[in-house]
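Could you please consider the sequence and fold appended to this message?
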Amino acid sequence: MLFNLLGEEKQLRLHLEKRIDLLQNELWSTQQGVTQVYHNGEIHNQTLEQQTNSIAVLEKQYNELQGKYYSLQLKFYELGNNFTSLQNYADQIENELSSVKSLQSVADLKTILNIRNDTKHMEDLLQQTTSKLDVLTTDANARKQDFVALLMKADTTEHRLYQTEKNLENTTLTFESRLQTLDSLQNMTGHQLNSLQRQISREKNNTAVEFQRLMYESSHKVAITAYAVGGTYHAGSTIVFPTLHTTLGSNGNDVAKMGTTGEFVCQKAGIYLVSAFLLTDVNGASVVMFKNNTNIGNGFFSTNGYRQTTSLTSIEKLNLHDTIYIKVNSNTQVWGDVDSVLSILQIA
């Protein structure tokens, strides 16, 4: 039984040595692969200037991988020490083999069983170490894949830069073509340019004259807006508008009576737009707009207890001293200020 144990121990030691050699070869291949990839990254460094940050990250990952490699070496040395201890243990067993023949008690057999248990424990430790080495190898392969992906991304970026450069060249050619077209347009004959300048000058003069005429006519047209005085107006009385909000083209005589008798007195003959809106809360009230003594518009209210606004609008031809005013037909409460407004605008 002890010989079988020793045979198993030797086979285990040989298997362990082969496993360690295989791991050393894999580590050497991994280091060579990473070194080769790193050198390839250095060769393409000038082409991948915009990927500097990504390469820095890759170098960091490489350093981490190298650190893991150093850690793996330490674990390998630790495994070697364990193997040395196991070999020493085996030598001790071989030394004690000579005394096995003279075993007289169960205690010696128990010692052999304990040695076997210790050997089993060492096998378990070796299996755990092997598992850790497999994990580190897998991680190193993953780092390789990350580096390959980074190189592919760099190639894609380089292709995009090339396409951008081609597009820029095409844009430059288009711009140069347009410049040539512009140069050809600038080569018009002096006669054509002079004719065009004379035509533009005539148009500018005509436009300036027309603009001055329109400005003169506009600045001398009448435009008036006035606010009413609020309160109760008796039947037949005229609503007065003493507050002038807008007065353009007025000589003062046309609006002089609007705050007293409520009359607008025309001082410039022409076509006028007359507009008014009035607010009241009197049910059934009505108002009338007059030109001189002629009715030119009626307004009615049907409030049913609520306030209501009515509007009056008319275009009239006014002669010098013609009058415009508004009367109420019955006792009416008129709201003043911006709630009741009269506007008169000369349009021709």
Remarks:
- The mean pLDDT is 78.
